Amino acid sequence: MTDDKTHFGYREVAPDEKTAGKVAETREHWQRVATLGREAHAMSGGAKLEDIFQQIQAGETATLNLILKADVTGSLEALTESLRKLERDDVKLSFVLRGVGGITQHDVQLAAASDATIIGFNVRPDRKSRELAETEHVEIRTYEIIYQVLEDMENAMLGLLAPEYEEVVTGEAEVREIFRVPRIGAIAGCYVTNGVITRNSKVRFLRDGTIIWKGTVSSLKRFKEDAREVAAGFECGIGLSDFQDLKQGDVIETFEEREIPRT
């Protein structure tokens, strides 16, 4: 009997029982590793950011497991050094991973296994990483100013975390072509991959998961006609306020902010 699995919509079948057995052993190995990782970190008393104050109040030493991702090495080192200065006798920081680049599915899987909070500085998770984080109940916090990271950390230690603003991604579009229009500038010829792109919405411009610009969608066209919105599965032309550095493969991410009251 052979083993089979689904991979990107196709079914892969092991050619013989020996291969199938090796596949099964490999799966069991990684399942054991993931289980042991979760159990070990559960026993170590790792806490999420918003749970630190409760542990301090209970007279326990709180250990906050962190995964740090930043746009460049300089930002990563500056953020790490600043965070380490916040450590106290009753609050310890453990850096599970520090790296440069966007927040990936691997980062989310590691955070789930180590009960860690992901801190992103000038970087974003893509759609699949966001969905995985929601499924695995992994907390991702993204920032663009270092002092805001430190302020949240200090407030968490004092039980004073302010209401959080959730940034809900409303649409994503991939830049396929760049058009230069006289007196207007660069227009991004895009394919909407997720959600709906709406004119005048807030936007982040991402390159390899890194935020390189924020602003608004200043113009939106479907063929040559102005459009109020364009849904996933359709092509459109997007003009961005005060931004011209467009490249094929870049991602335009629109979003809105919603306040989440703390209970």
Q: Kindly give the count of domains.
A: 3
CATH level-two architecture of the largest domain: 3-Layer(aba) Sandwich
Mean pLDDT: 79
Helix-strand string: EEHEHEHEHEHEHEEEEEEEE
CATH homologous superfamily annotation of the largest domain: Translation initiation factor IF- 2, domain 3
Count of individual helical segments: 6
End-to-end distance = 53 Å
For the sheet with most strands, the description reads: 6 strands, antiparallel, barrel
Which CATH top level class of the largest domain fits? Answer: Alpha Beta
3D shape: elongated
From the alpha carbons, calculate the radius of gyration and give it in angstroms.
22 Å
Quantity of strands, as a count? 15
β-strand amount: 35-45%
* Topology-level CATH name of the largest domain: Rossmann fold
Side-by-side strand order of the widest sheet: 8-9-14-11-10-15
Poorly predicted regions are 1-15, 29-45
Helix share bin: 25-40%
Characterize this entry briefly.
The chain is of the alpha+beta class and 263 residues long.
Question: Would you kindly provide a written description of the structure presented here, covering whatever features stand out?
Answer:
- The protein has 263 residues and is α+β, with helices and mostly antiparallel strands.
- The protein has three domains: 4-42; 47-162, 3-Layer(aba) Sandwich (Rossmann fold); 167-260, Elongation Factor Tu (Ef-tu), domain 3 (Beta Barrel).
- The chain contains six helices and 15 strands.
- The chain has helices at residues 17-43, 52-57, 73-84, 105-114, 127-136, 146-158; strands at 4-7, 10-13, 46-47, 62-70, 91-100, 117-121, 140-143, 164-181, 185-198, 202-207, 210-222, 225-226, 229-231, 235-240, 251-260.
- The strands form three sheets. It has a six-stranded antiparallel barrel with strand order 8-9-14-11-10-15. Strands 3, 4, 5, 6 and 7 form a five-stranded parallel β-sheet that branches.
- Helix 3 packs parallel to helix 6 (146-158) and helix 4 (105-114) runs parallel beside helix 5 (127-136).
- The longest helix has 27 residues, at 17-43.
- The chain is elongated, with a radius of gyration of 22 Å.
- The N and C termini lie far apart (53 Å).
- The model is unreliable at 1-15 and 29-45 (pLDDT under 50).
